[in-house]
Amino acid sequence: MIINSMNYTNNPYLHESSMDKHKKSVFNQAECKSGVTTRDKNEVINSGSFTDTSEAAALSFKGARFNKWLGSDRFANFLEYSDAHNQTANALVALVTAGMIRPTLTMAIPGMKDKKDKIYSAGQAVSSGFLGFGVTMAMTKPLDDALKKVQKDPEKYNCTFLVNMNKKIKELEEAAKGATGKELKDLQKQKKTLDLLVKNIPEWAICVPRAMLTIALIPLILKYVFGLTKTPKNKPAEAQQPAEFNNLKAGKDINIFLANKNNNAKNVNFNGKLPEAAVETVVTAGKSSKAGGLYDKFTDFIANKFTSPIINSKKMQNISDKWKDSEFLFNHMSTVTSTVISGVYMQRTLANKNLEDDKKKILAINQGLTFAISTFLSYAIDSKLNNWWERVTAQFIGARADEKDFAKSFATAQKERNAQIKTNKKLKPLKALDYAKDKKLVLPTNIDKLVNGMGLLKKMAIIGIIFRLAVPIAATPLASWVEELRHKHMDKKAA
Questions:
Q1: Dihedral, CA of residue 452, residue 456, residue 458 and residue 464, to nearest 10
Q2: Residue among 392, 402, 381, 369 nearest 475 (CA)
Q3: Are 217 and 124 in contact (CB under 8 A)?
């Protein structure tokens, strides 16, 4: 569902040339480029030691159709896109979970006595999902492109730290005994961590204006797209409520309402694809020599004045070195962003004069509950799914390398490693990519980016489902219940 919502045809980043880097059928012709040979390959396939893995394999996905999907170029393109554009991919997951699935479920679930509360919650979810994706894409794409420029030519942009790191990595890779040494692995992990930090730290700065812009635009979207208008305090709610809403009974009725020719939402299409107009704008801008030239200068400016100075700073270098072994760095950065956004949303919601008092309080309570509960659950579930997701990653690697038995082999090795960890805490959980390289599988040249995208996809999906779907849905009736108790308390106090 997440993957199919990306418009690959019109996305300039995901053109045909990018697919060539991870086609699984051509790897035998490019072993010298990938640095991975087919030596010992037959031993992996024909060893006969991978048959007794039913228990471990049962915890992983099965099926030829799923393996075909894992091995598809479209899925690989999305993973590469997620690796290069963390925040846009994260906003895409939010668009699917918060902007499409959540409003339907909000209308379907029982537990809210005021039907209009459901309508406003659903409308706000749709509006924030689409607005959040559009604004995030517009704000982060120049930053991501500037980082790509610095990574491609660090000398041009005076990024001395990256120049020295690349030089050291190359020396270690060329060394006969240093190719798999600890120093090389540490440098590679630090570089990966630095990359993640530079991509995501700007989110802390842009999340506030993005949230304020989204809040400001939501009433307009509700009014002019969905036909929702605010009820004046001196008039009954029924007099101001669109007639179509009186008969909304469940999530399925949203489609009837959206398709009604009398409302402004008749052209809204929740078909699981990105708004093609937005993508087409990017493509058109890229094709225009004048616009492309201005954009190129703009990203050059960002690369020189922001990206390179950030990477060259001693503080950033120390942070990337300190956190290079963290499995939850993306979670930590998302938590900081969520803290800021939740605070802004609650403050601005309570201060919004265009909302009725009851609606403001319900929304503010909803937002507070969503943040507190979601933060705890996202860490807990992410940690619990680590071993399982490594098996899914092994299936992905096996599908990309045409090694159908690799997932079973890894499941067996993972089970053995987990048993060893119980007696030796210094051992670390087995990684599917490390295991594949040890087995000398024929892998894509960009396999590190693809596997990193797999890891980010897990975190984005968990954050999206918990923060923007499960907890908000549960918090909506809970917030109404809390508000009802507050009203009873105030009435009793007044009496």
A1: -170
A2: 369
A3: no
Residues near 289 by beta carbon (within 8 Å), at least 6 away in sequence: none
* Token representation of residue 187: 């440098």
- Most confidently modeled of 16-25, 236-245, 293-302, 344-353? 293-302
Structure tokens at 262: 């009398």
Distances (CA, A) of 73 to 28, 76, 369: 17, 5, 40
Phi, psi of 445 (to 5 degrees): -65, -25
Contact 449, 83 (CB under 8 A): yes
**Residue 157's closest CA among 50, 18, 300, 337?**
300
Tokens describing residue 264? 């402004």
d(CA 475, CA 370): 7
Angle between helices 73-84 and 447-465 (to 10 degrees): 80
Alpha-carbon span 8 to 77, nearest angstrom: 8
What distance in Å separates the CA atoms of residue 81 and residue 453, rounded to the nearest whole number?
8
As given in the structure block, the two tokens for residue 227 are 């036909």
Instruction: State both tokens at 248.
Output: 């909304």
pTM summary value? 0.66
* Structural domain containing residue 251: 3-494
**Tokens representing residue 25 in the block:** 């059928």
CA 323 – CA 63 distance, rounded (Å):
37
Higher pLDDT, 344 or 400: 400
Provide the b/e sequence for 322-350 (b: ≥16 CB within 10 Å).
ebbeeeebbbebbbebbebbbebbbebbe
Give the chain's domain count.
1
